[in-house]
Amino acid sequence: MNTESATTQRWATLLGAAVLGAAGMYFSDPGRGRRRRALVRDQMLHARTSAARGTDVAMRDLYNRLVGLQARARNLLSRRGAMADDDLVVARVRARLGRVVSHPHAIEVAAQQGQVSLRGPVLAHEKDNLLRSVRAVAGVAGIDDRLQAYKRPAGVSSLQGGNPRLGMRSRFVQENWTPALRGAAIAGGGALAVLGLMRRRPGALALAAAGLTLAARALSNRPVRRLTGFHAGHRAVDLQKTIDIAASPQAVWDAWANYENFPRFMSHVLEVRDLGDLRSHWAVQGPMGARIEWNASLTECKRPSVIAWTSEPGAVVEHSGIVRFEPSDTGTRVSVRLSYNPPAGALGHGVAVLLGSDPKREMDDDLMRMKSFIETGILPHDAAQRSASQVLH
């Protein structure tokens, strides 16, 4: 056991030394080191400000929830002496229906002295969950079940369409955590990580990894699969941007459709080749100057309203995007939505930001270059391809 622990500690020391050496070379580069260090300082300042703001929000959320629990406890204790108003009970039940059944408007709700009557069609697989949820509503003393359960919606007009409901889920499995829950998870995850690292044993490393994962989940407010990129598809990181361009939708759409123009106004796009059959090959400059390549396919292409694409299977960076073009008072409003899954998911995105490669900021800058490119026909000086003789035709 001592031999294994010594070997693990030796490898950890070597790995730490290698990381520190690489970081030292990266930040002490004579040409770009000063800018990289400034970017890291800006990111650390932003993180400190965000942490202070997040702590304030979490404390206020926790206080409000404690007040709510106190009020709920008082209501439970006084239930025997006072009956809730029937209209209030009906409103509470109707609010709960929308979370547990796919066709809440098909169900009639009435209440009399806490006795709730439910009438109407419902899908059979949703009925039991519906009854359990209604029984848990404050003020409900009993249920008069007159529901008609159907295995399939065929032939029942009020059960057509609708969206499946996930029911009342635990806060831990929801995609967006509350500020109070995030604050508690950050504190608890940090404590587990410190405890695991202090023991320096192979088993304790798993504890530290679990604590760091919990803290990272709370900090990013993203599910673990999107945080790590494991089975996240294209949606580890989402980026959105809207910009107005003083040109017709047709002209703006044509500029986007001719994606071989992209290196002329995008600073990190090195090359785009048309492969035919709505396919293209892309080469971009990634963090620390790494060249990243992949193939993409158009999934929607309607002039002059929309362009959508997705990366092909096997891409180093899985991604998809959609651009919508809408007429505006000044020309065209361009709305861009990009989802991508970098290596290591959102954690990889965070490392890239720390190293000075911020996809959100880069997309904002590229869209401003494109706006200038379309409106003036003059190529920006800081694009990947710089040629003053080339203009937009």
Give structural attributes.
4 domains, single chain, 10 strands, extended, 7-stranded antiparallel beta sheet, 393 residues, disordered C terminus, Histidine-containing Protein, Chain: A, alpha+beta, 3-stranded mixed beta sheet, 10 helices
Kindly state the percentage of residues in helix.
40-55%
CATH architecture descriptor of the largest domain? 2-Layer Sandwich
- Cα end-to-end separation: 71 Å
> Structural class, from helix and strand content?
alpha+beta
Q: Provide the residue-averaged pLDDT.
A: 77
Strand content: 15-25%
Estimate the global geometry from the Cα principal axes: extended
CATH first level of the largest domain:
Alpha Beta
Q: How are the strands ordered across the major sheet?
A: 4-10-9-8-7-6-5
Instruction: Please write the string of helix (H) and strand (E) elements.
Output: HHHEEHEHHHEHEEEEEEHH
Uncertain spans? 344-356, 386-393
Q: How many distinct helices?
A: 10
Kindly report the name of the CATH homologous superfamily of the largest domain: START domain
Q: What is the makeup of the main sheet?
A: 7 strands, antiparallel
Question: CATH topology of the largest domain, what is it called?
Answer: Alpha-D-Glucose-1,6-Bisphosphate, Chain A, domain 4
Report what the structure shows:
The chain is α+β, with helices and mostly antiparallel strands. It has four domains: 25-76; 86-168, Histidine-containing Protein, Chain: A, CATH 3.30.1340.30; 172-221; 237-376, START domain (Alpha-D-Glucose-1,6-Bisphosphate, Chain A, domain 4, 2-Layer Sandwich). Helix content is 46%, strand content 22%. The chain has ten helices and ten strands. It has helices at residues 2-27, 33-77, 86-100, 124-135, 179-199, 202-220, 224-228, 249-257, 345-354, 359-376, and strands spanning 108-112, 115-123, 142-150, 237-245, 269-276, 279-285, 291-302, 306-311, 318-328, 331-341. The strands form two sheets. Strands 4-10-9-8-7-6-5 form a seven-stranded antiparallel β-sheet. The protein has a three-stranded mixed β-sheet with strand order 1-2-3, with helices on one face. A hairpin with a 3-residue loop joins strand 7 (291-302) and strand 8. Helix 2 (33-77) packs across helix 5 (179-199), helix 3 crosses helix 4 (124-135) and helix 5 packs antiparallel against helix 6. It is extended, with a radius of gyration of 28 Å.
